[in-house]
Amino acid sequence: MKATAAVLYEARQPMRIEEVEVLPPGPGEVTVRMKAAGVCHSDYHVMSGDLSMPMPIILGHEGAGVILAVGEGVNTVEIGDHVILMWRGSCGRCEYCANGRPALCDMGTAMRFTGTMPDGTLRFRNGAGDGIRHYAGVSAFSSISTMPEASVVNINKSFSFEKAALIGCGVITGVGAVINAAKVSFGSTVAVIGCGGIGLNVVQGARVVGARHIIAVDIHAAKLENARRFGATHVVNSREVDPVQAIKDITGGKGAEFTFEAIGSGETIAQAFDATKKGGKCVVVGISRADVRAPINVNQLVYAEKTLMGSLYGTARPRVDLITLMDMHNEGKLMLDELVTRTYPLDQINEAYTALLRDDVARSLIVFD
Predict the structure, then answer these.
(1) Are the CB atoms for 168 and 224 separated by under 8 Å?
(2) Residue 184 and which of 10, 280, 311, 341 are 20 to 30 A apart at CA?
(3) pLDDT at position 246, please?
């Protein structure tokens, strides 16, 4: 099959829009016609060279579409089904999957770092016949993509593709970090450093579970105002004041019981940790460059009994949690429409990332015909 894709041939260079060949699905694989894909900062880490990946590669990990073809042995979806992509496909058999931690499955990790299918082969070729790598096993920036059956989950056809794409990464990552990783309790105090797409979903996750104080921290006034819409009770512009002191002032000098870092900077990770109350949890959600280190005071781990932890993919069970999040939206508990600032066609994907880097958008989407 032929598809139109955004192909990255070299870090720090624009993606090229070109026609690619998509190979049919092998055993245990499916082919998806993409309908919507999220413009997420995680992909930019590869574009900028901060995260190393073999190239050429088709990026995109947040998406939704329709099943076009299924390979031998596929039994969870059929042609015509609507699906959300799961960028951490899992085998369902290893110790992590068996213990309810599928995001840590070695299969998903291997696909992330090799850019191949689980069997080590590729399903994309360019016009010269050269192989093109996959990203996170799904490559949502192609109008058609072949991927493992384990990388899709069947959804109700009445749910819009645009909303489904958002849930597939930004929403499940942010809300999941609150509910699954930190286990934020009713009436607690929460601080969120970074109010982009992930941070906003941390904010609304804290709102959903009934946090008493939800403190949003960012350097952009527009992002802070948006955070109020999603449930922040207090906002702190860290360009103007020390965010650690501001969080402590709001919480009576104690710090927040739960803090979240949604940027991926060593400095802001240290700020989140310092702003955590004694006995509290600091959860890192932002993706950093491979060489980033956070200058934390390790004595606080002992004397203040603070917990420093990370959360990947919302520490979720995607096949269950994605459906739950859709139900929560349908019940009016979860805001999705308000997340989308702008939509673009695929041929404007480089412009979409320029807008993201300028902090012009909360979340934007590539919408396919």
Answers:
(1) no
(2) 341
(3) 98
